[in-house]
Amino acid sequence: MKHAAAALAACALLWAPDTLADSQYKVLVLAMPGKYHYEYIPIARDSLERLARLHAFELTYTHRPEAFDGDLARYAAVMFLNTPGEELNAAQRAKFEAYMRSGGNAIVVHRAAITAPGAWPWYEKMVGRTVGVHPMLQTGVVTVVDRGFPATFGLPERWIWSDEFYVTTNPHAIAVEPVLNVDERSYDPTRIWPGQVARGMGRDHPVAWHHRYEGGRVFVTTLGHNAEMYRDPQYLSHLMGGIYWATSGVTSRATSGVISGPGQSGGGAK
């Protein structure tokens, strides 16, 4: 029995380096329950953990903003999942700003794009757009703007999708690269709750985009309202494409295959 235990221990030591080597990078996901977003959490966690196993990266999934008190440099990207940055305290915000300036990367999903005006202007600029009122959840047609961007690789040119199609403005004059638009002819952009007024954005209505901010990359998707969306293969492909780009900088447009590799712009241990 002792010999068997020793053999197992030896095997564990033998295989440990290969196991660690299989992990390409680490991603931190902050997902806090809110008034309108809580039922998605166990589903999103399970789906993201499966994506991490499938694509060989490490995932730290937490509802505690105290995770930002630690060393963020070990993460290739930080995801705000339906959780706006205003949930961080002043010290945590400062640490995240320093992380981005040193080459860290961010992924902003749905509700995380909404933050109170003036609460954290730096974060508003990082998102790249400011979300105002939005119409009720409806079925519409999402169209691909940038076929060379990884968050579109698993999607059709015209994608029937049901979501809250946020209306956004650009008060900070931030240049972003649209990834997906929504066709306002496919739903009613004025349909909203009593006492509120919603207007469409017209032909150019981005629902996902990316840009460079400070020293890193930022991917934003405003899609992802309902819990069941985090089980949908096409939505998860869209989300994984954003993770892939944020952590690597790779797109199909780059001549060398890499716009800016992990060693050039991307915080964290890989």
Secondary-structure blueprint of this entry?
Blueprint: H1 2-21, E1 26-30, H2 40-54, E2 58-62, E3 77-81, H3 90-101, E4 106-109, H4 121-127, E5 130-131, E6 138-144, E7 158-163, E8 168-169, E9 177-183, E10 206-213, E11 216-221, H5 233-248
Parallel strand pairs: 1-2, 1-3, 3-4, 4-11
Antiparallel strand pairs: 5-8, 6-7, 6-9, 9-10, 10-11
Summarize it.
The protein is an alpha/beta fold and 270 residues long. It has helices spanning 2-21, 40-54, 90-101, 121-127, 233-248; strands at residues 26-30, 58-62, 77-81, 106-109, 130-131, 138-144, 158-163, 168-169, 177-183, 206-213, 216-221.
What can you see in these coordinates?
This is ThuA domain-containing protein. Pfam families: ThuA (PF06283). Residues 26-246 form the ThuA-like domain. By secondary structure, the chain is α/β, with parallel strands linked by helices. It has one domain: Rossmann fold. It is 26% helix and 21% strand. The protein has 5 helices and 11 strands; from the N terminus they run αβαββαβαβββββββα. It has helices spanning 2-21, 40-54, 90-101, 121-127, 233-248; strands spanning 26-30, 58-62, 77-81, 106-109, 130-131, 138-144, 158-163, 168-169, 177-183, 206-213, 216-221. A 9-stranded mixed beta sheet has the order 2-1-3-4-11-10-9-6-7. Strands 5-8 form a two-stranded antiparallel ribbon.
Can you give keywords for this protein?
alpha/beta; signal; two-stranded antiparallel ribbon; disordered N terminus; globular; 270 residues; nine-stranded mixed beta sheet; Rossmann fold
Q: What fraction strand?
A: 15-25%
Helix content: 25-40%
Number of strands: 11
Largest sheet: 9 strands, mixed
Number of alpha- plus pi-helical segments: 5
List SSEs in N-to-C order: HEHEEHEHEEEEEEEH
Compute the CA-based radius of gyration: 20 Å
User: In angstroms, what separates the terminal alpha carbons?
Assistant: 39 Å
Q: What would you call the shape? A: globular
Structural class, by secondary structure, is alpha/beta
Number of domains as seen in the coordinates: 1
CATH superfamily: Class I glutamine amidotransferase (GATase) domain
CATH topology title = Rossmann fold
Strand order of the largest sheet: 2-1-3-4-11-10-9-6-7
Q: Give unreliable regions as ranges.
A: 1-21, 255-270
**What's the architecture, going by CATH?**
3-Layer(aba) Sandwich
The first-level CATH class is given as: Alpha Beta
